[in-house]
Amino acid sequence: MNYITYDGSYAGLMTILYDIFQYKIESPIIQSRTIKDVGLYENINVITCESKAAKTLNYLKLFLSIGELELIRNIFLSEEQLAEQLIISVLQKTIKNKSSILKDFSNSNVLKIHKINKSVNREKHRMKAFIRFKKVDSDLFYAECEPDFDVLPLIIKHFSRRYANQKWIIFDSKRKYGIFYDLTQVQFIQLEKNSSNIINSQRSGEHDYEQLWSTYFERTNIKSRKNTKLFIQHVPKRYWKHLTELK
Amino acid sequence: MNFDRVKEKLEILADAAKYDVSCSSSGSRRKNKNNGLGNSDGMGICHSYTQDGRCVSLLKILLTNVCIFDCAYCVTRRSNDIKRAAFSVQEVVDLTINFYRRNYIEGLFLSSGIFKSPDTTMERLIRVAKKLRLEENFNGYIHLKSIPGASDELMHEAGLYADRLSVNIEIPTKEGLKLLAPEKNHKDFIQPMKAVNNAIQEYKHEKEKSRRIPAYAPAGQSTQMIIGATGESDRDIMYSANFFYKKYNMKRVYYSGYVPVTDDDRLPSLGTQVPMMRENRLYQADWLIRFYGFEVSEIVNENSLNLDMDIDPKLSWALRNMSQFPIDINKAPKELLKRIPGVGLKSVHKIVEGRRHRQLNWQHLQSFGIALNRAKYFISCNSKIHYSNDIDPFKLKQNILLESNSKYSKYFNYQLTLF
Ligand code: SF4
């Protein structure tokens, strides 16, 4: 059995794929980034190499559409236990066949991949919907979230296009990193503890807008049509604490 | 902005606008120009949901709930004794921009009671949209309600700034309209639709010649019908809807179960249940026509005036047309696959792609997420087991009902006591 460990980055995973073919490694088992020490088994540690990763991705482009490449990336960001394994297995097969197998819905791995992709996409969509900005000092709009999957990289384009003329930060407090748009570009950021007071320094008047929004939310409801089950299905409780209108 | 005053107005004017169900913000692509604020990317985003599970995507308000008319089904009607209020143009602009910047909304849905005259009202609505686009460089979604009776010129101007325009026909039949809104004329609703549709077609035509023609009401028109306020049948409703789809290229027709808002002899009394199930069935039937290739007459006709409440309209159609089945999953063209009860468009796609690799059997179909409890009687696949489809349709329906754990079953307990 070949156990492969790596640094948990996407480039790392693509490097693994490169090495598997280079060194003809049979049925490898990829160690998810959370398992640090396998001890008993001999394992291969693959060191991330940007150029190998780029080559792999370029090669994959011969067989996979942009959408399919995005799908693979989504699976990776799902942080699912078996994500790496699934990705490697379908990509191996794709390269062997020299054509995509991602539309073969009668293959159980492919179905699994589409299922995970659906969840990731849903979370991505939910973050587009449920992000709530607060205006803080220095004209910055700040939002905090805790998505189920690591979807911040997937929403950069959406928010930077939409809010091109305001500075904003979206911070993932579960994974402790954020994305920051400074009116020209987006970068990944880490926030130190003491920067939280910048964030807390809410602008005067900010509370008024939150109140107006809550008022609107309340007033737009039609009591005689109440359907709590449907409501919770749309807005699961775990999201409530970040939603201005439900706090 | 005086927050307390605006809050009070918002309470009144959001409350009065909530019965309009067209909240969707999809179908418009508007890029963020010149580093402005906002865009529309074609797919609407629901930013929140009301307690009844309806999507909140737009700031939906009335400019004013002052109205010179007295339509029986409307809270805002002249004779209703309620608090009246009016937003200024600037207040609506400020609310929209500030809500948008905080990612609360996709844009604005602005409607209004008719104060003074239809044209004065329409002109004021347009002023809001114009200010948002030209002064605030706002590229988010704007839906303006067209005011029945507004002039063609104003309707034309509205389309220059709005993504979508709608005139709510409200009552599906002319007779019903005469009864409940005697001061209004069927023509007052149709004329603005006509004007907008003509302009849309014109711009489309121009666009073919030159790419630099500006967008004109890119998300098209929609309308709404109130369901269950007058005694209309589902056939009346669907045929009216079809007329608007065909004749004025409506993007959407919305169906809104009547919520009793005033006491009026001509209407269901206060406290009458909102016909939610019927509304749901109408949306299902509407989908069958828009996306599944069905003709209206296949769904409702002289023999089926109303949609079945206990089963969905596709299953209902299938039971009336047993001779068309079973459909062979591995051979049938896409158009036929779409007609199988329990098989949605996504499953059709999976079948078509999947059968290229191998003959599909029950297990495959199950893994595609097809509702086999309904579908199995209507298909054959690569398997020896076949579910007989020559059971009498009535019995078949009972089988399916017993097997399916319908989320609405609680509404149909009487069904079970019958057998
Ligand atoms: S004209 Fe419009 S706002 Fe006025 S009463 Fe009739 S439906 Fe209501």
Automatic annotation (TrEMBL), chain A:
Domain DUF4130 span(s) in chain numbering: 84-245
Source organism: Nonlabens spongiae
Protein name: DUF4130 domain-containing protein
InterPro entries: DNA_repair_put (IPR023875), DUF4130 (IPR025404)
Superkingdom of the source species: Bacteria
From TrEMBL, chain B:
Keyword field: Iron, Iron-sulfur, Metal-binding, S-adenosyl-L-methionine
Signal in keyword set: no
Swiss-Prot/TrEMBL cofactor(s): [4Fe-4S] cluster
Domain annotation Radical SAM core: ranges: 62-199
Molecular function terms from GO: catalytic activity; iron-sulfur cluster binding; metal ion binding
Source organism (scientific name): Nonlabens spongiae
UniProt name for this protein: Putative DNA modification/repair radical SAM protein
One Pfam family it belongs to: Radical_SAM
Source taxon at top rank: Bacteria
UniProt keyword annotation of Nucleotide-binding present: no
PANTHER family per the UniProt record, alphabetical: ENDONUCLEASE/EXONUCLEASE/PHOSPHATASE FAMILY DOMAIN-CONTAINING PROTEIN 1, TYPE II SECRETION SYSTEM PROTEIN K
